[in-house]
Structure formats: C-alpha cells, structure tokens
Amino acid sequence: MELMLEVNSLAFSYGNGPVFENVSFSLKKGEVMCILGPNGAGKSTLIKCIAGIFKPAAGSIRILGEDTASLGAKGIARQIGYVPQQNEVVFPFTVLDFVVMGRAPHLSMFSSPSAEDMEIARESLEVVGLSDLAERPVSSLSGGQSQMVLIARALVQEPSLLLLDEPTSHLDFGNQVFVLETVQRLASLGISIVMNTHMPDHAFLVGSRAAALTGGKLVALGEVETVVTSKMMSSVYGVKVAVREIEDMKRKVCLPLNGKQYTETKLIH
Amino acid sequence: MPECRYPRIALVYMLPVALLIGSLFVGRYQTPVSAVVDESMKAFSSLFFGTPASVSTQHTILFNVRLPRILAALLVGAALSTAGASFQGIFRNPLVSPYILGVGAGAGFGACLAILLWDNYLLIQLMAFAFGLLAMFLAISMGKASKGTGTLVFVLSGIIVNSIFTALTSLVKYVADPYDELPAIVFWLMGSLAAVRYGDLLYILLPMFVGALVLFLLRWRLNLLSLGDEEAKALGMNVEKMRLIVIVCATLLTSAAVSISGVIGWVGLVVPHISRMIVGPNYNRLLPMSMVIGASFMLLVDDLSRTIVATEIPLGILTSLVGAPLFAYLIRRGRMGWN
Q1: Looking at CA atoms only, how far is residue A219 from chain B in angstroms?
Q2: CATH match for A3-227 among 3.40.50.300, 3.30.565.10, 3.90.1170.20, 1.20.1290.10
Q3: How many CB atoms lie within 10 A of CB A17?
Q4: Cβ of residue B276 closer than 8 Å to a chain A Cβ
Q5: Which residues of chain B are within 8 Å of residue A112 when distances are taken between CB atoms?
Q6: CATH number, domain B2-333
Q7: DSSP string of A228-242?
C-alpha cells in the first residue's frame, strides 16, 4: 500500500541543543500512530514540525511522496489537518464560522467561504455529531465539544493526514472515549492519523502503530503490542508499569503498579 | 434567529446617509428645510449641468463649511473604527486601539513639530501623516529585531515608540511660544474637524481608500489571524506577511485620519465592540459594520461638538466623555462579544 507519510531523520532545535533528532517513521493510509512519551519529550514539537508550524532543523517530511518543504504552507494545509491541544478563541465565533475557517487553504487570499464551503463545514459537523451546535458560540462549548469542533475544522481541510496533539487531555472519561471512537471512525474512512497521548492504554484502543519518544529520540517504533510493553513503558515514564491482557475482552491494558507490587519483581517482566 | 436580524442590520447601513442629511441642518446658523432642499438642487445642477453656482450665504455654510466637515467626520470615524477592529483581531485582544503601535503619538509629534517650525496647515497634515507611518515602521522593525515572536513584541515596541514620541511632543510644547504656538499645539492634540476643507479630504482619500479596500478584501482572513499564529499557520496562512499587510493598512487609515482630525481617542476602541454586539465577531460582517457605526458615531459626536455650546468643544474630549461611559455601560451589560 502507498505510504501516506514518511518522516526521515527529522530533527528540531530551538537554538540551544536539539529537542529531538533522527526521528524516522512512516504511515500507511488509514493507520493510526500513537506517539507516547513523558512531558517535555518533544511530542507536541514533533507534531508541529509535521504540520508545518515549526521548521525542522534537519530531515524531511513527505506526504504522499511529496516533500512538504516544496509544498508551501497552503499546500501542506491541503494535505495535513492539525488539531491543537486546546484552543483559546478570543472572539466567540459561531461553531459554523469557526469550522469553516478550515477551508482557508482551498480559498484564494481575497475570497470568503462560499455556500459550498459552508455546506462542507456542515457536513463535517455532522461527521463529529455536532450539527445541532452550528449556531452556538464556540465559547459556550464544553471541553469535549470544543475538541470535536477542532477536529471538524481540520476535516474541512479535506486532509489525507490528521495530526492530533493530545486530543484527550482536559477531557472527562466519557469524552476521552468519545474522541477515541471518532479517531477510529476517521481512520476507517481512510485518513491517516498521528496522535500524541499521555495514556498508553489509548494506543491499545485506537492505535495500529505506536512510537515512544523520550530524551530526544524515538526509542521504540512499531506495532502497538511491541511498543507498549511493561519494560518499555517503565523505562519511558520512569515508573513501574505492567501490561496485561484482559482475557474476556481480548484486549491489553497498561497499569501502573503500587508500592507493594513493586517488590514482587515477578510481575515486572 | 439570524433571519429576522438582517432587516435591522440593513437599517444600520442606512444610518450614515440619514445622519449626513440631518447634519446639514445642524449648526449655529439656522437653515430651514426649504433652504437646504433649494440649495441642494442648485448645487446639484451646477455640479452636473454646469449652471452657475449659488453664491448665497446659505450655500457657503451648507456646502463649503458643513458638508466637507460632515464628510471628514464620516471618513475619520470609519477609518479609526476599521483600523481598531483590525488591530484587535491581529493582536487577539479586544482592548487594543488603533494607537497601539504608537501611531497616534507619532502623528501628534509630527503635527506639533510642524506647528512649531512652519505653522502651515498642509505641512502640519503631511508631517502628522509621515510621523504616524514612521512610528509604525519603528515599532515593526523593533519587533522584528527582537528575539521574541508573535504579537507581544509588537505591543511592547508600540509602548516604547509611544513613550518616545510622547516625550518628544512634551519637548516641543516646552520650547513652543506659550502665547501663539502652544495653544495651537494643545488644540490640535485635542482633535477637531473645524478647519477641514475639500482639499484636505482629497489628500486623505487615497491612503484611506487603499487601506480600507485591502482590509475589506482580507476581512475573512482576519478571523484566522485572531486564532493565533500557530493555528493560522496550520491552516496554510503566511502569518508574518498577512500581519504586516494588516498593520500597514490599518496604519494608513489611522495616520490619514489623525492628520486631518488630530488624535481622537475611544472611537477605534468602542465602535468595534458595539459592532460585535450587533453582528458577532466574524470579520466578514464585523468590518463593514465597524465602518458604518464608526462613521455614524463620529458624525454624531462632531454634531454635538459644534452645537452644545457657542464655542467648539474639541472632539477628543467629547469622544472620551461619550465613549467611556458607553464602554462602562457595555461592560455592565456583559454583552461584549468576547471572553
């Protein structure tokens, strides 16, 4: 199958030492890649580099075989949708006005969205299940609704790749699951997804692939099962972690261990 | 809900025209309706059919004194409000005024210097305009030279530029002749449209037209800029370039306005808020609405300034006296249209 995204030896630096370097991975159509790693590991920076917000210090990013360095900001935005961690909207646009801003890369500099663009925005709201909120101001939405509206705006870009920067942080349990289900649904529609997450469990829930970023390097990359292991997660997060299969659910979970279990080294492979 | 709102919004767009006609009647010199209609017909026919122009006192008052001043008030109000709304968008802050980059202080200094050196009306305007632009270029180059990113550095450079030009203005006041130049400087700084003639309008028309047209065409993109640099970039926008274009256009509007009216506060801050309450924050509707409300507000205040008492009240004083309580009222109502 055709490679949707290829990241080759990517490096980024704010000027005083690299945030990360030599990051390489690739993604096929409809695959979901979860990037795990501790706070400050550079997960968000990596996502922003791929989105074209930051300029990488070295390496290349190819989307559908084309180098993003030659695509320009507009060209990148037609292929890659970026969903930020949280939005601080100063002015309370209506949900529809906010979502239709995702049409920007498809419009010329002096034009405004047409009726057709509005229709695309409405359809995208339908995909995330928020059609009823179209006329509501974005400032009145709950955390979960805001996240879905941000996803809807990225979908309006009609991207082949979606980047989500910790889409479930700040959300309650139910909304986390709801967002993850949406991610899965979008992947099944053929969109490739790269997603940062703090919860290794989320990789089991939605991921087809996973990567662990810590100390400025990708220390693990591959199928979720091979990356989210108790040994790898323990070393990445610096706490003791167990990965277990829930037999009747045929699914793995990743659990932190408490003090007593610490000493029972048998539990920790 | 939105459907029933549009007829009312259309009415707001008629407001400047209604006020223009109404303002012709306003003033110390009594002008009955019949006289205004009569003189308008004569002026119209002399303009389009070449009949000899009326030379009556009424004609002079209506079309050589009141009309240019009315047009100036409309233009200045629209310009300051459009600039204010645009600056609020790119700085992502509803408390930003058109003078954020020190344009007002720069223009004020230019005018004061011209009063001190030449006391020529045209030169005062030119110097105000030029120093307004200079202030903007100083603020921008300072912002670009700094290591920081985003809008905050522009705000800080604006504060620096503002304080430098305010100090220089004080210096000019200090050395000015206290019986002749100083009152002229003080009066200019308080803002007035009393001396405006057609010739002045002609010369501000080009920068205002260019600034307003470009901002009007870019108005939907202002929505994107108000999301912040990273999100705008991720949506494919060249943020640095776009911000620069908006700053230059908004400064053209502000400098042109200040050069004929003096520094008039509050309009560029309050009007975008009123407009946001009427049509919401989407710049597609907000920018044209700000133009219309700004023009109407300025004209109303100017009408007040020439009628309340026998002598003129400087405009800057009135806009603050009218604008500040209005702003307080809006805050109390809690319907500012932002978070």
Answers
A1: 28
A2: 3.40.50.300
A3: 8
A4: yes
A5: 219-220, 284
A6: 1.10.3470.10
A7: S-HHHHHHHHSS-EE
